[in-house]
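Re-run with default settings, no changes from the original entry. Doing this only to confirm the output is reproducible before filing.
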Amino acid sequence: MSQHEPPTAPPTTPEEEARYHDYRGSAIPWYVRLLWLGFWILAIYYVVGYLIPQMQVELIKPP
């Protein structure tokens, strides 16, 4: 069996590499903020609707 050399990319300059990079900053997209807001709304709904009433039952009359 013969050994093959691994393929190598041709040498490029930093300017050529940067041509395909599009940095948009560290701003969080609106849909990520919407998902995060939805998560917290559902988490608060769960705590108020299910966890607090069950904790009261468990503390008053433990199993």
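The CA atoms of residues 45 and 51 lie 9 Å apart. Residues 28-63 form one domain.
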